[in-house]
Amino acid sequence: MDNRTLTLLFEGRAGGSLLDELLFLAAEVCPELEPLLIEDVHYHVGRLYEGRVPGVRGSDLPYHNLRHCRMVVLATMRLFHGLAGEGRFPIDSGMLLRGFLAASFHDSGMLATDDDPQGDVRDYLYGHETRSALMLRHFAERCGMPEEIARDCATIIKYTDMTSDPALFEAHGEKVQLVGQVVGSADILAQMADRYYLESLSGLYREQCAGGVCRHVSALDLMKKTRQFYNQVVLPRLDIAFSRISAAMRTHFRLRHNIDRDLYLENIDKNIAYLEAVIATCGDSDCFARHLKRLPPAT
């Protein structure tokens, strides 16, 4: 399989559009889930990020943008598909809907609204999960969904906060916990396995500093600590806090594409190995642009 074909497959565009793939996976897992609802969510979130929903200014963020949102949704649906194929957990339509909604809206709180101060991103980057849950609630109310869906999704979105401890969340049932682990895992995998992850790290650094959560002295410092972050933070979260739900990704690729490989973990390993090779070559010089020059496609 050549790189272009593999990339299209990984991004859910091998057999059509990303939406086509999402609809296919949803039908495979829970055919009773209304496809028109999936389409409605998909297009509404696109309008949110493009600034075409009244009261929301849209996104100009370089990292947590619409592409990132779409890739997390895809990873979420793939994990559900893998879990359903394994038969370890029964996935019902309520769980799938909550996971799809939470993944679709999980970073929508980073979008500026007309009520936010112009030019000040601090209020809507830091602690954005609460705002994301509110965006989702507004959509759910517009669609006439039961209140408990928005309530559960607010808990599920908290699983995407890398600084959170799910054991400290308000009490919630096993189904919500499983969906939270799926969406939390998908958020991590979609970011670090993305073909354009390395090119996006400088944008992530700028976002973090603008949002008042800058933990690195420079974008280069963030890059140098990526391996440490993955080993000490990401892997324990995937394996322990999220109960190795991510292992279902291999089952998905085997059942969907007859590829008995976990393309997400493979891509993460490739990204980190290449980043370390570039760091070794460039040191503290400014030659990174010569090695990190992929441009992500338009969403």
Plain-language structure description:
The protein has 299 residues and is mainly α. It has 15 helices and two strands. The protein has one domain (3-291): 3'5'-cyclic nucleotide phosphodiesterase, catalytic domain (Catalytic domain of cyclic nucleotide phosphodiesterase 4b2b). The protein has helices spanning 3-10, 18-29, 35-49, 66-86, 93-105, 122-125, 128-142, 147-158, 174-192, 197-210, 219-224, 226-241, 248-257, 263-282, 288-291, and strands spanning 56-58, 112-113. Helix 4 crosses helix 13 (248-257) and helix 7 packs antiparallel against helix 8 (147-158). The longest helix is centred in the first third of the chain and has 21 residues, at 66-86. The mean pLDDT is 91.
Task: Produce the secondary structure layout.
Elements: H1 3-10, H2 18-29, H3 35-49, E1 56-58, H4 66-86, H5 93-105, E2 112-113, H6 122-125, H7 128-142, H8 147-158, H9 174-192, H10 197-210, H11 219-224, H12 226-241, H13 248-257, H14 263-282, H15 288-291
Helix pairs in contact: 2-3, 2-4, 3-5, 4-5, 4-9, 4-13, 5-8, 5-9, 7-8, 8-9, 9-12
